[in-house]
Amino acid sequence: MKNIILFITAVVVAGSSGYALQKSFNQPQVKTQVNAALGQQRPEFAALDLNGDMRNIKEWEGKLILLNFWATWCPPCKKEIPHFIELQREYGDQGFQIIGIAIDDEDAVRDYVEEVGMNYPSLVVQDEGVLLAKRYGNGIGALPYSVLINRDGEISYTIMGELSKIRAEELLAERGIQL
Predict the structure, then answer these.
(1) How far is CA 88 from each of CA 17, 40, 143, 150, rounded to the nearest angstrom?
(2) Domains of the chain, earliest start first
(3) What are phi and psi of 34, to 5 degrees?
(4) Hey, what's the torsion of the CAs at 118, 120, 124, 129, to 10 degrees?
(5) Is the pTM of this model over 0.85?
(6) What is the pLDDT averaged over residues 87-106?
(7) Residue 111 phi, psi (nearest 5)
(8) C-alpha dist (Å) from residue 14 to 2, 8, 20, 25, 59
(9) N or C end: fewer C-beta atoms under 10 angstroms in the chain?
(10) Is pLDDT larger for residue 33 or for residue 158?
(11) Any idea what DSSP says for residue 154?
(12) What integer best gives the mean pLDDT of the chain?
């Protein structure tokens, strides 16, 4: 009798444990990657634009800035740029400013900017752009990489990879831009 009770107890414990383990495996796993740059004051930098003028990030203080690291050889970068052109045209008068940071050859950038009619500044930083991107939270140097800087100069959002127009508009609306 004692062996039967011991056996039943073991089956119940094993069954309960298996059930709990199975439930935990079936729960959706949410991976959260915290970017250390979030909430930090944006790093200051200056770089040349396509006219050869030195531009400093401080020039756009008080604006909601989308800093976009890109290159002409990057297909997802080229896919999001037409949407950025639309966003700049539609919301620029509300204090929204896109700034392209081209990690590329100046001639290739110039040709592409003229081809697509880019309506926001693109600063050419070439190799040092990877280090600048790291200062803005891009630890692996991925492109495209975008950083949303609020009107107080704090990094409020980062995205590694392509930023869709729909998601960009959601982020703008959350920060007071009237859509």
Answers:
(1) 56, 25, 20, 16
(2) 46-174 (3.40.30.10)
(3) -90, 125
(4) -120
(5) no
(6) 97
(7) -60, -45
(8) 18, 10, 10, 16, 66
(9) N
(10) 158
(11) B
(12) 86
